Amino acid sequence: MAAAQVVGSLPGGPPPETPGEPPFEQGRGFRCLSARLCALRPDDSSSGRTEIHLLFDQLISETYSEGCGVAPEDVSTLLVQACRLVPLNQNHLVSKLSQLIHHLLNTLQVIVDEQNLDFLLAYTISAIQQCSSWTHMQILQALAALVYCNGSKCQKYLPDLLGKSGLLMKLSDLAQSDPEVRRAAVHCMANLCLSVPGQPYLEEPYQNICFQVFLTTLQSPKSSDMDDITFCMLLQNALKGIQSLLNGGKMKLTQTDELGALLAVLKKSMFHGLPGLNIEMPTVLYPTPLPQYDGRPPIQPQQSESSTSRPAVNKKKKSKVKAKKIQQGEEEEEESSGEREVAPVAGAGRLNLHRGDTQCPSPPGAQSLPLAASGAAGKDRVSSPFSSSSWKRVSSSESDYSDAEGGMQNKVRSYQARVRQGALACFLSTIKSIEKRVLYGYWSAFVPDTPELGSPQSVSLMTLTLKDPSPRTRACALQVLSAILEGSKQFLSVAEDTSDHKRAFTPFSVMIASSIKELHRCLLLALVAESSSQTLTQIIKCLANLVSNSPYNRLKLSLLTKVWNQIKPYIRHKDVNVRVSSLTLLGAIVSTHAPLPEVQLLLQQPCSSGLSGSSSATPHLSPPEWEDSCSGSDAGSAGGSIYEPFPMRLEALQVLAHLARGYFSMTQVYLMELGEVICKCLGEADPSIQLHGAKLLEELGTSLIHQYKPDSSVAPDQRVPVPLVVTFWTAMLNGPLPRALQNAEHPTLQASACDALSSILPEAFGSLPSDRQILCITMLLGLNDSKNRLVKAATSRALGVYVLFPCLRQDVIFVADTANAILMSLQDKSPNVRAKAAWSLGNLTDTLIVNMETPDPSFQEEFSGLLLLKMLQSAIDASKDKDKVKSNAVRALGNLLHFLQPSHIEKPRFAEIIEEAIQALISTVLIEAAMKVRWNACYAMGNVFKNPALPLETAPWTSQAYDALTSVVTSCKNFKVRIRSAAALAVPRRREHYGSVEQYAQIWDALVTALQKSEDTTDFLEFKYCASLRTQICQALIHLLSLASPSDLSCIRKTLELHRDMVQSYILQFLKSGTERDDTGAPHHPQERDQMVRTALGHINSVQALAGDPAKRAIMAFLEDTLTIYSDSSGSQVAPLGLTHR
Which residue ranges does the record assign to the DUF4042 domain (predicted)? Predict the structure, then answer.
C-alpha cells in the first residue's frame, strides 16, 4: 500500500519547471534536503537546532510544481522524521515544523496514509497541549492539512479533538481570545467533516457536535477584537463544514428547529456585507405559507463603509499581503470584468477544504461539491494567494479612496462576497438533503412575493440577483433559485389568479400566483440589467425552470408573452451559452401545458429581428433559422462561421420536437421542410445530431397518428392529407433513415430510429411503395436479433405497432414471423425487453381477435396451431414474471383463449395448456399484484367467457374462475378492478355457462353484496368510481335475471326480500343516469337500460315456475314496481308490462 497519494496540483501556484526537464531533476533539491534531514539524529544542542531550522527553511522555500518527481511516501517519511527530531519543548522549532507540514502537504497535494497519519496526529495533538499558545495557529494549520480527506482514519483521536473537553472544542469556543486560533480550529473541524466516497462517514454523534459548533459560529456576531477579513474566513469555514456534513456525511435535518435554525443563518449569511442592506433575522425560521417578517433597520452607509474599510491586519500579515499585491491586482481586474465562465454550483468544480493557504483541486474520487464553496473559505491566512478559480471580486475602479484604502476595501468586499457564495452553496446542499414538501414550507422566506402598496420588497434570492455587485454571487443565487423551482410543478399547480380583492384574507393559491408573477417580473428585470454572459445564462436557465413548472393555464395571460418578447434578442447573442439557454427557454415555453392559447398567438405573430431574418409575414414557428441551426448552416451568424455550435443545433432540434408535439396544427404547414432538416441531420457524421433528428421524426410521426385517431378533435379537412404523409415517409425511407437503422456502432441511434419507424401513420403505410414496406418489415425483423437490449426493446415495440396495421394484420406470414420474433424476445434477460415484447404480444393477440371477427375465415384456418401452442406457453410463463411483463401477458392469455377454435380445443394437446392458462389467470386475479395487472386479468377472464367453444358448463376450472371474480368484486380495494370483474361476470350468454344453481346463487349474492359495499372505501380517490361500479353491478344483476332458470328464482327472491330497497334504489339510479360512457361496454342511453330491465321482466314472466313457488311473482312485482317508479319520475307515457295477474 502506498504511503500517501497525490491528488493534483496547485492552480495559480508557482510556475512549473521547464517542460523538457525530467521529473527526477525537478525533485532533486527536495531529495537532497530530505536525505540530509533523515541523516540527522535527535540533538538538543544549539548547533543541532540551528541546522534543523535551516533545513526547514530550505524545504519551505524550495520550488515545487506538478509532476516534480517528489513521491508522496517520501513526503510522509520526511515529516515523520522531522517530528522525531523536534522535541515539544522547542516552541520555535515546533512552529517551523508545523509550517513545513502545512506547506508540503498543501503544495504537493499529498494525503497522508493511515500509518504515518497516526504518528503525525499524535504529535500535533501533543504539541497543542504542551506548546505555548502563540504556536497554536501554526499547529492548527498543520492539523487541518493532516486531517483533510482523512476524517474516517482519525477515529482514535476524535475524543481528544471533539470530546467535551476536546482541543478543537476549546479552541473554537466563543470565549477563545485569539480570533485567528478560533478560525483555524473551526477550519480543522470542517476538514474533519469532509468525507471521501467509499470511506466511512464521521460518526453521527461527532457530526452533531460539529454541526452545533458551525451553527453557533454562524449565529454569533463579530467580536470587537476580530477584523472583517478574519470574520469572513471564519464564516466561510463554518459554511463549508456544514456543507461537507450535508453532502459527504449525508446528514439528515429531520428536526424542524434544527432546519429552521440553519435556514435562518444561511439567509443572514447570504446577505453578509451586501452594500446597502443589513437584515435582522430570527434565530429560527418556521415553515409557514405566509410571508415572514424581515426586520431591516435602516443602515448608515458612512458608518458601514468606515467599519469595513479600516485596515485591520496585524504586522505579521502586512508583509505577506504586500508580497502578493501584484497577483491580487491581476485577479481583481479579472473579477471585475464579470465575463468568466460560471460553472453550475452543483457538480462543477471541487470543494477545497484543504490545508489553508492554497487553492487546489480535490483528489480523484473525492466528493464533488459545489463550485461556490471552493477556494476562498479554505484560506488560512489573509496573506494567502487566491487562484483565478476563486469567487469573483468587485471592481474598485470607481473608488474615491487612496490606493491603500481602496485596496483594503476591495479585499474586504471580496471576502464578504465569498461568504455570500458559501452560504448559497451550503443552501444548495441543504435543498438537496431535504424533501421538497419540507422545503416549500419555507418558500416565502426565500422567494419574492408582490409587495403590498407602500411596503418595501422583502429580501429574497432575487434581491441578490438584482443587487449583488459580484457576478459570481448573482449566478450562485440563480442556481439556488433554479434548484428550488426544479420539481415544483405540483406545489405551484395550486396557483390561481383572481381579481376578487374584497376577501378578508389572501388564499394560499393567490399568494403562490402572486409569487410566480413576481418571479417573472424580477427575472426579466435581471435579464435586462445583466452584463455578465455567465450570469445571463443562469438567469435564462432559471426562467426556463420557472416556465416549465408554472401553471399558466390557471394564470392570467401576458406572463409568457413578456418572457417571449424579451428573450428574442438573446437568440443572436455573441455568447454561445446564452444562445443555447435562450433556445432552452423557448423549448420550455412551447412545451409547458401545450397547447396554450397564449403561445399559439405568439407563434402566429410575424417574425421580428432576433428570431429570424426572413420576411415579416413568416410565422415564428418555422423560420429558416431553425432549419439552418439544425442542419448546420448559419451564414448569418455573428461570427460568420459556416456551422452553428454543436449545442445550439441540438437545442434547436429539441425546440422543434416540442413544437411538433404540442403545436402540430401549426407545425404541419412545414412538414416537408422539417423532413429535409431531418434528412440532413440523419446524414451527419455525429451520432448526437442523428439521434435528435430521429427524435424529431418520431414526434412528427406520433402527432400525425394522433390526428387520425377516432377520438381526435382535429376536423378531417384540417388534417395533413394522407398522400402528403406518404410522400413525407417515402422521402425518409429513401434518405439516410435506413443507414441509421443499420448503424450498429451506435445502438442508441438504432433504437431511436426504430421508434421513429414505428410512428408511421397506419393509413399511409399501406400506400407506401411495396419495396419500402418490405424494407421496414425486413429491417425490424432483422434488428430483433440484435444483442443490444435497447435496440431489441425498441424493435419488439415497433413490431407490436406494425402488427396492428390494417394492411398487415391479415397477412398470416407476417403475423407468424412477428409472433416468432416476439416469443424470442420474451426469453431475453432484460426486463425492459420482456416488457416491450409482452406488450407487443398483447397487440398481436388483439389482431387475432380482429381477424376472427371478419367474415373471411381463412386467417383462422391458416394460422398455425403449433404457433398458438407456443404463444400460450410463452404467455403462461410471462404471467409469472414482473408486473410490467405480467400485465400484458395475462391480456394476451385472454385473447388467445378467446381465439381458440373448436378444431383446436378438441385436440388433447390443447386441453392441458388451456387448463394451465386459465389457472394462471385465476391466480393473477387473486394475487396482491399491481392493480393494472389484476384489471387486465379480470378483462382477460371476460374474454375467456366470450369463447362459446370452451366447455364452461362442464370444465372444473369454471367454478374456480367465478369464485375468483366474486371475491374481487366484493373485496378488492381498487374500484376499477371491481368494475372489470363485474363486467366479466356479465359476459356469459347462456344460463348453462353459470353452472349449478348453487354457483348461480353465489354469483348473484356476491353482486348484491358488492352493490351494498359500493361506497365502502377508505381511499378518497376511489369515490369517483362509485357510480361506474354501481352501474356495472346493476347491469350484471339484470343480465343474470334475463338468464335465470326456474330453480334460480328462490335465491333471487330471498336476496330481494332482504335488500329490496337498496337494490331498487340503485337500479333506479342505473336507469336514470345513462349519460356517461365507460370502458365496460355498459349501455349509456336510458332507453337501452330501460329495455334491459323490460327484457329481464319478460324473461322472468316466460319462466315456468315450480308449482306453489311465489318467487316468480315476487321478482316480477319488484321489476314492475321499479319500472313504474322510473316511468313516473321520468314522465314516460309507456306503462310497464302488466304481467303480475297471470
Answer: 418-599
